[in-house]
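Dear colleague,

Thank you for sharing your sequence with our group. We've completed the structure prediction you requested, and as agreed, I am returning the results in plain text so they can be pasted directly into your records. Please verify that the sequence below matches your submission; if there's any discrepancy, let me know and we will rerun it promptly.
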Amino acid sequence: MAQFYKELKDLRLTKGIELEELESRTKINKKYLRAIEVGDFEILPVPYLRLFLRAYAEEIGGDSQRALEQLDSFLGTAKPILTSQPPAGEIKDQTLDPSNENELLTKSNQKLRDDLIKGGILLVIFIFSIFIIKKIFSEESSAVMGGSGLVIQHQVNVISDEKLITQFTEDKFVEELISVKPPFFITLTAREQTAVKIKQDTLPVHSKILRSGMELDLEGFISQAELLFSHTKRLRVRINGLDLDQVSNYNYPIRLKVRSDPPSMTVRWYRPIG
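Please find the predicted structure tokens below.
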């Protein structure tokens, strides 16, 4: 078998086919044809070698399939016969008997239930988180950073005149002169959230929510102003730089009036009825 290439050459010579003629008929350079006849198979990659050998054998009337098998044997590249059927062991492993099938269905159903339970828990947590976030940032509350982290503060509403009359009663009253002159400029500095309704000269009545850490400079006024606070806990009130300590640190509503003629202020403290 090791001489199969010599047998092909002998067959060519027996049929009187010159190498140049074979080159013309196969369109293969005679350098490669000569290499095939002497067994110099390293000159070509195996795929080309097989193509050239097939054409060579067919043109000289030889058995091209046998020549290819002899080439594979010579080169040690003979391919094992492939079968489309998997090994018997694999077929056995892949075959499910009824008990195994029921077991797999049971496991599948259990996994589905577990996934549904986990999904339900995550959904509840998500909805609850949305509720908490909306609660924190709603109009009824606010979130501020305190010394120990995030602190939720319930928003203080502005006291209306109606609520002041129906739910509170006047506790005490003070009127005194102040040492500053108009125009007046009031500054409010909050260390705790509160609310204030403001009347200044002929300006429209308006309200403000003072959040913790906020400082508010009111519009200057000449004649008079009236401020109604929901409370003044940790609130600093200044007029033209003068601290009004009487107004600060009261847990219930306070009404502050400032007049220019003469420069004075009136403070009324209120407490809940009952």
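Summary note from our side: Confidence is low (pLDDT under 50) at residues 80-96, 136-140.

Kind regards,
the structure core
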